[in-house]
Each structure stands twice: as structure tokens, then as C-alpha cells.
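Appendix B. Raw example, untouched.
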Amino acid sequence: MKVINLILLSIFFISQNSFAEYQTKTIRYKAKDINVEESWSFREDGTAQRFELRHGDAAKTSKQTPDSQRVEMSYLPENFCGGKGGNEQTFSKCKDNWIALNLKIPEDFPSTDYQGIVSTSKLYILQMKTTTSLPLWDLNLNKAGTELVMQLNDSKNKCVPIEVKKGIWNEIVVYSSIAVNDKNNYFRFWLNGKEVGCPNNQFPIVARKEAIQGTKSKGATVSWGLYRTSLTKYLLKHNKVIPQNMEKACPSKKWENKECAIKRPFDYEWQNKIPTIVLYFDKIYVDTEPPKGIALENFN
């Protein structure tokens, strides 16, 4: 069965033409510490990568967190921007950061909305984070895989939501400056060559002391893949019968608290399960310069 799956995966990738024709390079990366254990959660064929999360994933691992599932890769720099690189992942001397990749969302990518109104499960697919674990920015996939939202500075500012097409390769390019002593820090984001508007192009890293401290000491790191949160919210909204005696992870021990979650949600039986999600990434690029051959609106 594994051989058949790998053959089908290879045929899938060979039959697809990437949107971008920019010049890529081989980059080193590693799997982040994740709370999944099955081999099907990540596969690679050439430069293309396939990520998958299912209901129940993380149920048997000691690293299961109260309200999330994660399978991600992380950029592993080697003497990047004068930093230490390797396992240290230090790029404290970086100023300009360029990330480019192709993203493919399957046609059957499921919705996690509740009655079409409330998003009950959040999905992060690309992040730049400081060593304090605060995201400088993160890219989220919403509305059954039809909308991308870029959030800045630990989700306190957002770019304009942009429609994304399923079933094709979409080119995503992100530029950000993390020079902590530079008042001209800013952020830009493109989808398929078109620049996406951001209300605050002044990259707001300077507003957070924790982020400044983190970037001064060890810089930031880039990760991509699937990071799904708010599992409790989804399960409670989509199931009329709630399991008894669930162990909670709540500051107040009351469900009314927005921070409340089921401590180990997959320890219990649910009639309506969290949908399986799959995403494909290709031609991942991380560097201090934009990739050669790329065409970007308003680029200067």
C-alpha cells in the first residue's frame, strides 16, 4: 500500500506545472517538534512536499498539546546572515528576509466553519517566529481553503484577505525586515505576482519587547506545513452529544473562558470528527535576496 501511495504521489506531482518559474536553490530544513506520529503525515517527492492531518492524530504521543495538531518543516540555515546556522537556527544579523513557495490546495479541502458563520478551527500554513515563540507574521488558510489571511505581529494586525484558487499551484512571496534597530522595518506580501494590501506595512516588530529581545539574541525562524488549532471549539460545535467527564485545560475551569480547551480531545469518542486536511508545497525558497526570475507587482 505504501508503494502504491508513493507511486500515485509521484504521478500527481509530475502531472502538475508550478505557477512560478523563479530560480530556486536547495535549502536545508528539518521537521519541527510535532505532535503527530504517523508516517503519512509528511511525504516528499523531489522538491514537492505533502502534509496531512487527520482526526485522532496526536492521540498517542506524549507531546500532544491541549488544542492543536501540527506537522511542519523548519528552515535550517547554515551560516545564514552571519549567524551560527545549523541546529542553532540563528540569523540574528539578518535584515531582509524573502520567502517564496508554491501552494496547492486540493479541490476537496474541507470547511471547518460552523453553519457557514463561525470559523471553528484555525489553520496556520506559514510562519516567521522569534525564539520567544511569538510569530512576527503568520499566513492562515480560511473558508474551506479559498482565502488567505496574513497576520502581523502576533495576530494584532492583518493584511487584506485574498481569494486563493483550489486545484492549481499558487505562488506566495513574503518579504519582511527584522532589523530591530531600524525604524524603516516593513512587510510585503504577494499572491501570484499581485501585491496584497496590508493596513500597516510598517512591520510592527518594534511594538513588542519580547519580539525585539528574541530577534536580538537569536533572530527568527521560518516554518511551513499544517498547524491546526481550536480543536475543542470545532468538536463542541459539531457534536450534539458531548463525552462525559472530559479533562479540561482551562484557567477558570469553566467552558465560558475563551482559553478553555479539552486537555486530550482525541481520548474521547466523537460522532462528528475533525476533517482530514492535505496541502502541497513546492519550490520553497528562503534567503536575504528575492529569487531570480520572479515577477512581482510594485516590486522595487
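End of appendix B.
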